[in-house]
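Form 12-C: Joint structure prediction
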Amino acid sequence: MTLTAAPLRLATTQPDFDARFTERLHWSAEQDDAIEGRVRDILADVRARGDAAVLEYTVRFDGLKVDSLSALELNAAELKAAFDALPVEQREALTQAAARIRRYHEWQKTQGGATATYRDEDGTLLGQKITPLDRVGIYVPGGKAAYPSSLLMNAIPAHVAGVQEIIMVVPTPVRGSVATGGTGDATATRGERNELVLAAAHVAGVTRAFTIGGAQAVAALAYGTASVPKVDKITGPGNAYVASAKKRVFGTVGIDMIAGPSEILVLADGSTRPDWVAMDLFSQAEHDELAQSILLCPDAAYIDAVQREINRLLLTLPRAEIIAKSLNGRGALIHTRSMEEACAISNRIAPEHLEVSSSEPHRWEPLLKHAGAIFLGAFTSESLGDYCAGPNHVLPTSGTARFSGPLSVYDFQKRSSLIEVSEQGAQQLGRIASVLAHGEGLQAHAGAAEMRLKR
Amino acid sequence: MTLTAAPLRLATTQPDFDARFTERLHWSAEQDDAIEGRVRDILADVRARGDAAVLEYTVRFDGLKVDSLSALELNAAELKAAFDALPVEQREALTQAAARIRRYHEWQKTQGGATATYRDEDGTLLGQKITPLDRVGIYVPGGKAAYPSSLLMNAIPAHVAGVQEIIMVVPTPVRGSVATGGTGDATATRGERNELVLAAAHVAGVTRAFTIGGAQAVAALAYGTASVPKVDKITGPGNAYVASAKKRVFGTVGIDMIAGPSEILVLADGSTRPDWVAMDLFSQAEHDELAQSILLCPDAAYIDAVQREINRLLLTLPRAEIIAKSLNGRGALIHTRSMEEACAISNRIAPEHLEVSSSEPHRWEPLLKHAGAIFLGAFTSESLGDYCAGPNHVLPTSGTARFSGPLSVYDFQKRSSLIEVSEQGAQQLGRIASVLAHGEGLQAHAGAAEMRLKR
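Section 2 - Result
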């Protein structure tokens, strides 16, 4: 059977466009009761038994034959050794990407995040104090989805925010273990490590690193154990167990977001080379079969040209099978009446990645309200943003760009309000507070305000 | 039996201080499986059946005998009428509080939240675009905990952020209904409305208002029904059902936070009148029996004086019984070695409200790392902040000030990254991205970067 990739072809003029497009967009993060139940048990167990429970799950799921959690800690020298052992080209790419990511996030810090106050006319001081979190945990997936770029994108903003301790967890399952789909005989004292991930941890300035994963690692970070320090917030992607565990510990610690499948939406006016656009659609589709790649374009002939390039380029790629499944199952090439209509549809989708592949991207950008990241112009492929343009690649998926944004420096800071009411201010404010407190039936609130009034 | 209030008396020099204090602090938001199950069913039902399901639950729980959801919508004229009918003193207090809250949040908006970009040396443009959410839902509790101030604190930041549609839901249960602890015969077409809440909705500029509540109201806002528009984010406090529902729809929509019992921590150097401090401790304790009021002070004689004022003032208050239960069960008066030690203990607690009741509050403020709001000096009673100082009174509880802050304008905005790579920039970035993408096994990512390189 020849491998082909044919995204659903639609036109907004079709009478059934809305229904068919809605159906194609549909993706639901249904909660799996079985996973939820197992995660709840693992969290409770780690909370109760600490290190011993984490160790048992790591032996059972990752197939690691170790007898203490300290054997699962990687020290700074090991991270540095991983970096030093890389080919020079990879060392330089990691270092340059980190420098660009750091520079963007340092700029971002200046755009908000400074402690500031003002005084009103009666001398009352109001404002907010910005401080970094003390300690954060970064989850890094092991196995096939081990992305060193993810580590940079999570750890560098934390570092720039001023977080003092960055604790990384990354599972290193043994081949043949439960975590890798095997039966799980624990025989090795050391699992499969991804050297690029360890090198990235060195570059990003991770404080401590543990080779643990799954719900048990999330629990260790959220509750703390004898070996793993309790953190204030956990960020980073993971599988369904990790996502369920993060959602469950939300409130005990902060979390970043629950990510769905990755998405790209390309708005094209027909001026970009069609092979570039085809490859950009592929670069999202290659993540996994549920990833979604959509092209919106008012030029039907251009859409034909992109489809031809999809056909031509597909088999040049090692991940052609995943790409084909993703494009056939979830992709769409949509002929719109105009670029304006394309922008309106984009707002309805609120895509994670939005490429404005146009010769006049600044004409369309003001029309775009909801997106995780907006890539302007033909040279701005989404993959440049994934690695090294500077802005964060951790972005809201599944339409959550309607209410949230990229991971940022701000996620690793928090605000405290500052209020200093002057004696004079207490007279005016006290009277307002007293009336409203009595209206709410809270007489001690009223009393505290009234006591500060001059007799 | 005479009512007395005796918060636990501790000294940091006691050998068992840590253990006893930790025990007193303990509060756990255990999830109630029965509530979780019922909430899951209600959410699924509203998602499937929309208005009909919301209506059925409102009839069943709130005892309202109505046959369409439109009968549960309050129009702008009704909100205005509620405002117009208030005593002039309450009208003025609401208006002045709203003006002060608006002014603070307008200032806050200038401290972050502006779209900005910069270009690096190769012409690549980077930055972030800030836009308001389109539509938000505000949950306002009905019954005994109906606080108009909460509505101001939720709706005004949304308004200042630029949100176009603010949808309020507030249950108006009939006396004797299930929601008010009765048996639930639906006989009335109209439940108990809190006129101050409706007036506050008028002042705050709410767009639409529905008299629905509970998990069914959260579901209606999260999924949308024929009558209730789907929102992007839901904020506002509620009971255990509302909290569970909000946690469950998190991801479909944004939510603010899951609030625990209210807390106040007073750091006192002994310079504030002890009756003022006693009343400030009461003003948190009167919220509910689980609220926590703690005094930290290096002066034992001053602590004695505060305890005497507690004894003297307690019976002057209508809510004395709740205050006594809260102080006896969860309160603490702690003798510290020094103000420095008191600050360190405060950081460990990360309190929601932190009063620095000192003659030199700016000496201690820099030592305070974690708190929702910091009230400086003797005149700054927490109750002034609750109603009208300006900063938000929706604050992180249960130690979550370690990683989160007050509700803010920023909660009603979101960011999108902006990236425009120049042709020249694509050369440098493309080589870095290509190396890293190949390292991660993502060849289409590499391909998209490589295609933009000059041959």
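Section 3 - Comments
The first strand of chain A starts at residue 8 and ends at 11. Chain A has a mean pLDDT of 94.
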